[in-house]
Amino acid sequence: MKRKEFVDLVGERLTHVTPARNRAGIAARGLMSAASLAQASGVAPGRIILRSDRRALSLPEGEAVLTHQRPLLQGAATAQRFLDAHTLESWAAQLDQRIFLWPKRKGRAFEKSFGQAVHVLSLCAGALFDACADHVFLSPINSGNATRRPARRGDWLYVPATAPVSAFKDNRRRRGLTRQRDTVAEVSLTCALPPDVLARVCR
User: Which residues in 106-138 are b (16+ Cβ under 10 Å) and which e?
Assistant: First the structure.
């Protein structure tokens, strides 16, 4: 898809919601995935997966607080039913390699459910596409949530922003998982956004 098609799918602005204590660290180092933050703090990424509580990491630029993975842990008993070619552990590990953004309305709902003071970043979707389109992926569900009746998911769930629009909209329908064409519920990045890039996309 092209820039305009991407913006039409996700909206003009995307939201990143994080604990308020991360504000200074983000200003200093930009946005990084949980796995990258763990490595930078000297903690093996495997030690942070399936965390039931928030985890504070110590980095040179200041503390980084990771959110918990309780919504995924709620699916532990039924993981084989909703995960394709993954265990709960491996799915949690790949989640930690991504940075998550939300379309505006989803971001508001996520912010309200956070349960603590938050820092909210508003990113220009078009500028994000310009900066790192090859590392942007779209999902029709919150891929880290396995509460209630978890939707089927696997690596195939994440559709590249550079793929045709139909590749995303019909991804689950072609698999017989839905009857309707999908809309975007979640955007994820597989690259960091250093401070200079973050400043450009948050304009």
Answer: bbeebeeeeeeebbebebbbbbbbebbeebbbb
Tell me how far apart the 2 most distant CA atoms of the chain are, in Å: 49
188 vs 10: CA distance, rounded Å: 12
Amino acid in the structure at residue 77: A
The rounded distance, in Å, linking the Cα atoms of 123 and 101 is 9
- Digit-by-digit pLDDT tens for the chain (203 residues) are 999 999 999 999 999 999 999 999 999 999 999 999 999 999 999 999 999 999 999 999 889 999 999 999 999 999 999 999 999 999 999 999 999 999 987 766 666 666 778 999 999 999 999 999 999 999 999 999 999 899 999 999 999 999 999 999 999 999 999 999 999 999 999 999 999 999 999 98
Which of 160, 157, 135 has the alpha carbon at shortest distance from 146? 157
Handedness of CA 44, 24, 198, 159 (dihedral sign): positive
Q: Copy the structure tokens of residue 12.
A: 């003009």
Instruction: Give pTM, 2 decimals.
Output: 0.95
Half-sphere exposure of 176 (CA within 13 A, CB side): 0
H or E element at residue 5: helix 3-10
